[in-house]
Design brief:
about 700 residues; alpha+beta; 26 helices; globular
């Protein structure tokens, strides 16, 4: 049977065992194949095919006989090598079959890669370096739009630069140096710079859930967030998830496509088509044998497009809601979808497998039930019940009953012929899942900020607990005084908190940047192996808004304290360069913030329990001087060494840039076993910062 251009010979011996052999027509040799997908596909082909069959009579490839299987033969093999392959394949998919078989060349596109590294990579790198260093524009902005970002309506004009900017870009580029004294003139007669600026979702909204008594505030808050909150999976979707996860776990897509950099343009496109078709076919065969058999026979991928879109969207939606899941499989899935959008691939495949992620807002609005997001009871119905040690059991039970009662009331109130009560409950549970995500990923940052402000003060230095660092000492690459380091840590943690709070929106924007036909990538060795370097304009704009909002909030906090504080360190956001090659790497980096902070917070929380053991209590007292000194020693080391600009091969890759702050924190985690307090970490139950990698 022909499977993606290979001639597959299947036989069965006296003992029930399948032998799958791949015949290379060019080399004239056989090789064993263990792919489950290949076995399934061959089984589908062999059953019900009218023949003629070719059965194997010996070990040499010349020993073949034609005709029906003789008496005593349990199994048989078929090879289109000896027949007319075109009679088996339908005319609809003839071009796809020819491309997969190598008899026809894929469509050529001038922007394609050449042997893994294209000229676009060099151009992309140069553009990013210019943008990061000076904000130099690489293409002209449309009339009336910001000169720097080019996707926001201009709201101010710099009289000295004579350029038009949006509010965020102007303040970013004029934050220090000679540009800090430039004069800005509002382009709005009313003086309101925000009147025409396109901001998807303000990041300076309150970090906590709105109060139940503020109906207007709650309605706006939930409506905006629901646009990026994924729907919780149903039981049927969870079955699809298990199938997709199993298929991705055994897939070697990225190894075969990105690992072989010597492939020419046509060969790479052919390999992409072959692997994409193999993966999609295996999914359908495993889910529906009859439909899979038909797909193998006729290659009618377009007919099964809804199934492919559904099962792949389920995996992406599950990953957004559970960042710790599918840590290896998600990258394969995104890169497969990314390749399916390439013009030279989609033109032959004629299939779109990337559907938008199903959000709560879209689900409700499409069924005429968006008003549930503005109901005052939604705050009670979606809040998380947290046993924080302060609330007693009676209060927790009362809150739980109030929550379930509010869910039932909303479900009955907004149920209609278009949407039933169970679907409304599913939407409410999905919003509740978002609150659980914030508790697990944003709250650790807030707790670490509380530790910083509790044990350290910027204007006072306790003896033995000086936060100051000096470049070159202990691996540090930054030089900060105690006050400056305190502010640097506080500003970095505040930025991480804002990113965690807005992560669902950033994730949706990342997928839009990754899976799009008009944003090509270049395969390049960035020093971290071969990476897909790709610009991320949507995420870059969102990150600049978040950074600007954080800077404004930090300045307001300083003003309330009677001081004036500038942003400490660089404001460069690496995206689409050697440091952060694409939006997928960006998402992967910032979803690990909780993995860094949570273990530290758990250890600090469990330290008082260790005093119940007399031997351990004596060890802490004699070694560290008591439990309070131990806590401050751990925090001192973390706030100094995890924010010192270390962790990269050179200053540009780490340092004080936005990305470098997280790199330094990971570097501290790598050296945790060398710390004097590491035995206490182990006694407190610490295992690792990575957690469980699989599932």
């Amino acid at each position: 049977a022909v499977w993606l251009g290979h001639v597959l010979l299947v036989s069965r011996t006296e003992t029930p065992h399948w032998h799958l052999v791949d015949f290379d027509s060019e080399l004239g040799v056989y090789s064993y194949i263990t792919s489950f997908a290949a076995v399934a596909l061959c089984t589908a082909l062999l059953e019900g095919f009218p023949g003629p069959w070719w059965w194997h009579t010996g070990r040499r490839r010349q020993e073949w006989a034609v005709g029906p299987a003789p008496e005593g033969k349990i199994g048989f093999s078929y090879s289109c090598l000896f027949g007319d392959r075109d009679s088996v394949m339908p005319a609809v998919s003839s071009r796809l079959v020819r491309v997969l078989a190598g008899s026809d060349d894929p469509p050529a596109h001038s922007a394609d890669m050449d042997e893994g590294v294209s000229s676009a990579a060099c151009q992309m790198e140069a553009e990013n370096e210019d943008d990061d260093a000076m904000g130099v524009e690489t293409e002209a902005a449309l009339a009336g739009y910001c000169t720097d970002c080019k996707d926001q309506v201009a709201t101010v004009k710099c009289m000295e630069c004579r350029d038009l900017y949006c509010r965020v870009c102007f303040e970013m580029l004029h934050r220090k140096g000679a540009r800090a004294v430039h004069t800005a003139v509002s382009l709005n007669p009313s003086g309101d710079d925000m009147a025409h600026e396109d901001v998807h979702m303000p990041v300076d909204i309150i970090l906590s859930q709105p109060d139940a008594g503020s109906e207007a505030q709650a309605g706006w808050w939930f409506e905006e967030r629901a646009k990026y909150i994924p729907m919780r999976l149903t039981m049927e979707e969870r079955k699809h998830l298990r199938l997709l996860e199993a298929a991705l776990s055994v897939s070697s897509y990225t190894d075969k496509i990105d690992g072989n950099t010597s492939l020419s343009k046509p060969k790479r496109t052919q390999a992409q088509l072959r692997e994409i078709c193999a993966f999609l076919t295996a999914l359908l065969v495993a889910a529906d044998y009859s439909a899979g058999k038909e797909l193998v026979d006729h290659h009618n991928f377009k007919e099964h497009e809804p199934f492919f879109q559904t099962i792949l969207e389920v995996g992406r939606r599950h990953k957004v809601m559970n960042p710790e899941k599918l840590r290896g499989e998600y990258g394969k899935l995104v890169y497969l979808l990314q390749d399916s959008k390439l013009p030279e691939v989609s033109e032959v495949l004629e299939l779109d497998v990337a559907a938008p992620i199903k959000s709560v807002y879209n689900y409700l609005s499409s069924r005429g039930a968006a008003a549930v997001l503005s109901d005052n009871l939604i705050t009670v119905a979606t809040r998380e019940i947290i046993a924080d040690g302060v609330k007693d059991r009676y209060q927790l039970n009362r809150e739980s009953k109030d929550k379930h009662r509010a869910i039932d009331i909303l479900a009955d109130k907004y149920a209609s012929r278009k949407i039933d009560s169970e679907e409304i409950k599913l939407c409410l549970y999905s919003i509740g899942d978002n609150h659980s995500y914030l508790t697990a990923n944003r709250d650790p940052v807030e707790k670490m900020i509380a530790y910083l402000t509790r044990y350290f003060r910027p204007d006072q230095i306790e003896e033995g607990y000086d936060l100051s660092i000096a470049g070159g000492e202990g691996g540090a690459r930054l030089s900060h005084s105690h006050e400056k380091q305190y502010l640097y840590v506080l500003q970095s943690l505040s930025l991480w908190r804002e990113i965690a709070h807005d992560m669902f929106r950033l994730w949706c924007l990342s997928e839009e940047d990754l899976i799009t036909a008009d944003n090509r990538y270049a395969l390049k060795n960035t020093g971290q192996g071969m990476q897909r370097v790709q610009k991320a304009p949507r995420v870059s704009t969102a990150m600049r808004n978040i950074l600007h909002s954080t800077q404004q909030r930090c300045a307001q906090m300083a003003a309330r304290g009677g001081g004036e504080v500038q942003w400490i360190g660089s404001s460069v956001v690496h995206l689409g360069d050697d440091n952060v090659p694409n939006a997928l790497v960006f998402i992967d980096k910032y979803t690990q913030v909780a993995s860094i902070l949570n273990p530290i917070i758990i250890v600090l929380r469990n330290l008082p329990r260790l005093l119940k053991d007399e031997i351990v209590a004596e060890y802490i007292e004699t070694t560290f001087g008591g439990i309070d000194q131990l806590i401050k020693d751990i925090l001192l080391d973390f706030f100094r060494s995890a924010f010192d600009g270390s962790g990269a091969d050179n200053f540009y890759d780490a340092g004080s840039c936005i990305d470098g702050r997280l790199t330094s924190a990971w570097n501290w985690c790598q050296h945790i076993s060398e710390k004097p307090f590491y035995p206490v970490f182990k006694l407190s139950g610490f295992s690792s910062f990575d957690g469980e990698f699989q599932k």
